[in-house]
Predict the structure of Choline transporter-like protein.
Amino acid sequence: MICLGGVNANDPKFANQSIEQLVQDKQCAPYIYHSKSMLGRCIPSQVSRLIGNGTGQVRDETGKRILLKNAKDQEVNGTEVAKSRKLVLGFTTIFEKVVADLSQTWHIILICISVSVVLSFCWIVLLRCCTSVMVWTTLILFVALFSFGTVFCFYRWSVLRKTPEGSNDLEFSLNIVSYFRSASTWLALGIIFAILLVIILLILIFLRKRIRVAIAILNETSKAVSAMTSVLFWPILPFILELIVISQVLFVAISLRTIADPIGTKITNDDLAVTPGFADKTRNDIKGIFQLIPCDPLQNNSAGKACRFLYYGDRKYTIYLQLFNLFMFFWLINFVKSLTQMTLAGTFAEYYFSSQDKKSTSKCPLITSLFRSTFYHTGSLAFGSFLIALLQWLRVIIEYINTKLKKANNPVTNFLSKCLSCCFWLLEKFLKFLNRNAFIMVAIYGQSFCSASRSALSLLARNVVRLFVVDKVTDFILFIGKLVVVGIVGGVAYVYLEGMLFKGNEALNDALHSHLHYSFVPLGIIILSSYLVASLFSSVFEMGVDTIFLCFLEDLEKNDGSAERPYYMSKNLMDILGKRNARS
């Protein structure tokens, strides 16, 4: 007999107690059921061996049959126990195998995440010397690709138009292959490829200088990130703050769900009497519930009467509190994002305007920028995030109304609701763009939110083409970076998890490789984690590009290179634009 503390009933401290007393006082177990450990839980050995038994009998470790009975004193066979095991414990489900796979590969997942961090940092460092090569090589490849596509499509058109089948008029068909047998299809594709080719050539001819400026700004951002590596770890703090906000909002939402008043119905002593027709009486009571006068079950002080509890109700005001809680969630989340943007903007702006005089740079520009944003620009952060939160809150309400209107099947109301959703979505995108650039101007000049928004919009409106080129080149570079990081980490992880890394050495392969049930589960987690890591690095880099680009435009418009107003831009940017400082 096993007792508390891992001792048996013969222990000296139990000498004055009988076996019955020990069991009754729950000091010792009344019986022992052989079990085995599985995922930290004790599972009966007989139950763990039922699957694949096929005999429908429960047997112990020696093969002896065990007679089990249920609460009704009926015999339970092995098949029924196996069904219970499958339904309740679920150890034959996919979840068990997935957990087992993750328990074997968690260290591989952590290693791959660490590798993705290193690769993302290396990619940003490589941008200092490879940005120009990557962009121009890609544009040349695009020209070659669309040139080949144009020539091939017109070649196929010239061949098919001479055949009886290809010269026929194009007709609607569910067979997609039939379209490619028609000369008209290849003619249309050839025209499309030719138009795209002309557009790319025009971009290369007329926007080559602006492309060079965009590449130079990317190089400057890469230098800034390399000089201030602490900015790469900055997303950790906003991530923690967002987790705190989410947990707090969930706690408030759950607490609001508990706000209710107890609802009951009055009953007398006669109602509580158990009679032969008790079932019928209960049924009649249920039917008459809504005809009875509600009462407070917490105040049962009337003689001969009582109040039977029915349910918690009267939540008519909690919906408004939940809506307010939802709005606060949007506001706080956007406030954290705004704080992130302004902190990074202040850091990169300080780097740009101190490039000519490194002594003017603070020792820790990231902390300095965070201090300025928190203590001097909280109002701007709150107002900008409030505008976005209000739009997001209204969009949620509109989407909720849309789901209700769909049941009415009214095309007019559905159309209007869709138009409202589209307008609010576009307005939200514009506000996010406005906030992002306004926070950069606030970080540079310390202006109010409205003044900074007006300055940023007017500045960008005067440089629309440059903005478009820089934005697209940045998107392309960041997309390539994410693709490289995810491709390398995911490819190596796939080779390892599938046991292909040391395929020639079976002994080494068996020693290092874990045999998994579903290798795609840890592989999917690795790929997703690598993408998230690359996205975090990309978000910092993208904010740096936007900040340095606005600083460059301000520098170009407000300075002329004289001794009184020198340019702060790098020599590379000056060479591209043909600018010089009087002192250099």
User: Anything to note?
Assistant: The longest helix spans residues 94-160.
